[in-house]
Amino acid sequence: MTAxxxxxxxxxxxxxxxxxxxxxxxxxxxxxxxxxPEIERDYxxxxxxxxxxxxxxxxxxxxxxATVYANNFTVGEMRAIELFYHQPVGQKLLEKSPAMMQQxxxxxxDSSRKAAEALRTRLTEALRQKGHKx
Length: 134
What we know:
Elements (H helix, E strand, L loop, with lengths): L1 H10 L3 H5 L1 H13 L3 H9 L1 H26 L2 H12 L1 H42 L5
């Protein structure tokens, strides 16, 4: 688990969960304070305590993700992966991965949409040839 936690930290796999905290707290703020300034002031004053209360949840996320890695890779494999991410090319991959994931997701969505349109056209034509009115 030590190797897995280290790898998860190096890969910054859990960072998106930490980044969600401000949005979560803003959503809770709106819900709990109900736009009442006196409650908003107290809520805002409690922010450091609330953020500190998130720490165990974040640690649990890291441990849970580390467990997934530990169940799928040997200690040696995790160390080798971590070594890769400490190299310049690994750092570049970590830096570029979020944008690349968005781009590849868009490619997949665009390709799926084009394929669905083309298939719809072909199927419509094939059904019309069989005498169906569409």
